[in-house]
Amino acid sequence: xxxxxxxxxxxxxxxxxxxxxxxxxxxxxxxxxxxxxxxxxxxxxxxxxxxxxxxxxxxxxxxxxxxxxxxxxxxxxxxxxxxxxxxxxxxxxxxxxxxxxxxxxxxxxxxxxxxxxxxxxxxxxxxxxxxxxxxxxxxxxxxxxxxxxxxxxxxxxxxxxxxxxxxxxxxxxxxxxxxxxxxxxxxxxxxxxxxxxxxxxxxxxxxxxxxxxxxxxxxxxxxxxxxxxxxxxxxxxxxxxxxxxxxxxxxxxxxxxxxxxxxxxxxxxxxxxxxxxxxxxxxxxxxxxxxxxxxxxxxxxxxxxxxxxxxxxxxxxxxxxxxxxxxxxxxxxxxxxxxxxxxxxxxxxxxxxxxxxxxxxxxxxxxxxxxxxxxxxxxxxxxxxxxxxxxxxxxxxxxxxxxxxxxxxxxxxxxxxxxxxxxxxx
Length: 426
Prior knowledge:
- By secondary structure, the protein is an alpha+beta fold.
- It has helices at residues 2-12, 39-42, 46-61, 113-126, 158-162, 173-180, 185-193, 197-205, 221-235, 239-250, 263-266, 291-294, 300-310, 319-328, 392-409, 416-422; strands at 75-81, 86-92, 107-109, 273-274, 279-280, 297-299, 333-337, 340-344, 349-353, 356-365, 368-375, 380-386.
- It has 16 helices and twelve strands.
């Protein structure tokens, strides 16, 4: 039974980082103005595009087994962005044991990379609302909710929630109990899909913080469920509506909540696989309380569009987006993992090594594993999606290897120290 539970937890969703470090549980074709270029305009010649995919093929092959084995992907979708390259590469198979190469146009659930998007959503609002990020989070949650505090009454802020330093546990109690007592796959679906706002309120009331806010890093999906609730109250809209507005602003066309997937989109999903038998998923997980935490769907073109904005290859849509990106990248909490110094931004991790500053977010959810990595100084970005969990170490290592190849393709040397530090996942 214990093995079954572990299998199901990994199979359906982990919504957490894929590192081994202490306290860590654990991818442009619509434009937004006449001045923007199209995806076709961004691509280099066919010869150049083929060469970048061929160059990374050797690196990718080590991480794929289409027969389906734990810790390797059945297939991967990769997006690379630089001033010279904007390309999607695909390898392996969409389905275990089948010869069905991904097209690169599929959508997939991006797991905790959703946290990066949700943090951007809050940061855009923070441009106009003074003190939003550092005010007590309770100011933006329902008035009748009971919010836990630190040992001397310290209140956690939205910034604490988005940097994983609020002191809240990984999962709220009711969800944790449901996950711990599943007897089958449908029970696991139910654990997430049946979790309600009322459950969130009650669990919050009964929670004791593990430490004073702002003092300790502890990865918390619980905390990002609160970030989503705060966003809904601040915007006075539902999260699906907020995400739709964000997508339009940023020039995204296939970044949506699972309940808003069209039938065509559902028929073109890069479904994940999980567990010892590497079983394929059959439908999306719809869990409205945790959508902004780990269940947003996107595709390679949209994630490539975000990379081009984040890295400074494309112009930002407007001043608000520019200022919000500055807020996202502020180093708000320093920690160490595997001997590497890490700073926590809003919904992302930051590694500074030599001439490189790497911004990262990893995510696993519903059988897929995603890594999102960029460097705005050198204008480089990589997204890697694998359709298996557990594949956390593999997707992170692969993203870093591809980043090095992309840098070399741009005439930028990546030192061994940078390559090694890159391996730390968020």
